[in-house]
Amino acid sequence: MGAGHDHHHGAANAADRHSGRLWAAFALLAALMIVEAVTALGTGSLALLSDAGHMFTDVLGIGMALAAITATRRATADPQRTFGLYRLEVLAALGNALLLSGVAVYVLVEAVRRFGDPPEVTTGPMLVVAVLGLLANVAAFALLRSGAKESINLRGAYLEVLGDLLGSVGVIGAAALIMATGWWWADPAVAVAIGVFILPRTWRLGRAAVRILVQAAPEHLQVTAVHDRLAAVPGVVEVHDLHVWTLTSGMEVASAHLTMAPGAEVGAVLTAARTALHEDFHIEHATLQVEPGAARDGCGPAGW
Question: TM segments (predicted)?
Answer without folding.
Answer: 22-49, 55-72, 84-109, 121-144, 156-178, 184-203
